[in-house]
Design goal:
- The protein is α+β, with helices and mostly antiparallel strands.
- It folds into 2 domains: 21-97, no CATH class; 110-188, no CATH class.
- The protein is 30% helix and 23% strand.
- It has helices spanning 21-24, 28-35, 43-58, 65-71, 80-88, 94-105, and strands at residues 115-123, 133-136, 148-163, 166-180.
- Strand 3 (148-163) and strand 4 (166-180) form a beta hairpin.
- Residues 37-153 form the Transposase IS701-like DDE domain.
Length: 189
């Protein structure tokens, strides 16, 4: 695991001053916000990250990677497999992104911070999908019957941020996450 960035909000030596054509087409406020994350990536990875974030925001319907590439206007900028490779093999740390998000949220945090932990089962199947396993499916189980489902089980650590108009409820801001993979027994190898 890599060490977190020194400055948390972008390491000066890694921030990318050269802008791609995609970055010129997005609103200044979003561009400035995304630039704070540039220290977490190498230049090609930051361009992929920017394209996917813009695509995720502008995509309608299901948020599949190829649809996000289309919605973000990145078609033709690089081959679509580069975006899939960014998620599976590029050298970047989700913990670094979480540290930047936490630093950005700091002005709105109360003195006593509430941490929330939740797990979510995303139903997936297929022999070639990484990390898929059988997990307890709490949403489809009842008191007398426990159901197992195939998919990804994500555990998310979020912080509760009180909202000015609803201090009791607030909003949960995801900071860190992990894919839970059950231990492999010698019998299943």
């Amino acid at each position: 695991m890599r060490a977190p960035p020194r400055d948390v909000i972008g390491v000066k030596s890694k921030q990318h001053r050269r802008r791609s054509a995609l970055v010129d087409g997005i609103p200044t406020s979003l561009r400035d916000l995304l630039f704070l994350f540039s220290g977490c990536f190498a230049r090609p990875s930051f361009e992929s990250f920017t394209s996917l974030v813009v695509g995720w925001i502008t995509c309608r319907g299901s948020h599949q990677i190829t649809r996000m590439i289309q919605a973000g206007g990145a078609v033709g900028s690089k081959h679509f497999s580069c975006f899939h490779r960014f998620l599976s093999r590029a050298k970047w740390s989700p913990d670094d992104l979480g540290a930047v998000i936490l630093k950005l949220a700091e002005p709105w945090l109360p003195d006593l911070v509430e941490a929330l932990i939740d797990d979510t089962l995303c139903h997936r199947g297929g022999p070639r999908i990484f990390g898929v396993a059988m997990h307890h499916d709490g949403a489809n189980s009842s008191r007398g019957w426990s159901r197992l489902s195939c998919g990804h089980n994500w555990v998310v650590l979020a912080i509760r941020i009180p909202l000015p108009w609803d201090r009791e409820r607030g909003a949960a801001l995801p900071i860190f996450f992990r894919l839970v993979r059950p231990p492999v027994s010698p019998d299943t190898r």
